[in-house]
Design a protein that fits this description.
elongated; eight-stranded mixed β-sheet; eight-stranded parallel β-barrel; about 400 residues; 10 helices; alpha/beta; about 25% strand
Length: about 400
Amino acid sequence: MRLAAAGPGAFPAYVHDLATLARHAAEIRAALPRAVGFTYAVKANPDPGMLRALAPYLDGLDVTSGGELRHVTDVVPGLPVAFGGPGKTDAELGEALRLGVRRIHVESPHELHRLAAAARTTGRQADILLRADLPLHASEGASGPAGGASAGSGGEVLRMGGVTPFGMDPAGLDAAVALLPELPELRLRGFSWHLASGLDADTALAVAAEALGHVRPRTAALGLREPEYVLGGGMEVDYAHPDRHFDWTRYGAGLAALALPGERLRIEPGRAVTAYCGWYLTRVIDVKHAHGTAFGILHGGTHHLRTPVTKGHDQPFAVLPAHPAATQQPGDTPSGGDPQAVDEPITLTGQLCTPKDVFARNVPVDRLRAGDVVAFAMAGAYAWNISHHDFCLHDPPEVHYLHPPA
């Protein structure tokens, strides 16, 4: 109620719950074997407050651009960094070496040559992982936490392996390995992959086991001591069932069983770490009925929170009433002049001049009235940072933090 009573200039706003985030990160770290590295994928949410809250529980950060690299070096200096991504420029490769990036994920034989040239220019040796795009079958048929999520549920699997621009197929890996003796500036540490997103714990473990079966013979043939294997992220986040979380305890126990003596495994989750710890709050400008559909027009829009458009789901939300309960019927205008929807489905849209500016479609509500606040949950990942901020040039949302107790 205190949020709902805030002034008109208070919204739209992001609220990042750093207390919950720190507790969640601690639980993930505790569930993982000590020999498994916990690295956060910065692309999910590079918010400075979130990075600082996560830092005590992380073994490192995964970045995908020079901009992310400079950002994390400034915000959380000293935390080990790995650099991945399919399109690294020569300038970014040189910058990564100068800034002491711990591992560089190499995506192709040509990138291997360009990284070696950057290493010669900077006088720095590069520790590398070869990114593998492997022919896996473990995730086939999986479409969500229960194996049957629909495309709009927010629980579907996104295939990152197969015919994609990411990494090297087995022939490409062979070509890259054959080049290494000619490139003494590069030191092979192992292999990495990120083959699918939206996997439950059992499917993620099956993917890891199958991938390890592909790359272990290669490391043995190369005589690598203490090889490193980066399993990627891709843990499920189901927007249709916000209370259903990835089973980190089961996953950690499975990784402990998969790891062989002398191996170093690492995971790089992003969305599954921060999604639950952020909210996007905004106020209802108008409620109207047209062609039998109730619309709630919100201050802000998907240029602030792009996630429901990109994933094609209904963003989960709660309504924080700004007024006492009334007795009007659906479609009526209350005596105070504020239109409302009562006990009916409503479609929540923003201020943008496009019919795609939709947060949720035909979701039942008890009551939604102009002036109420809508709080969208699960807005802690791929939200503000993935959105098209400048479309229509609306003002950006504010950012607020809920801190852990001192």
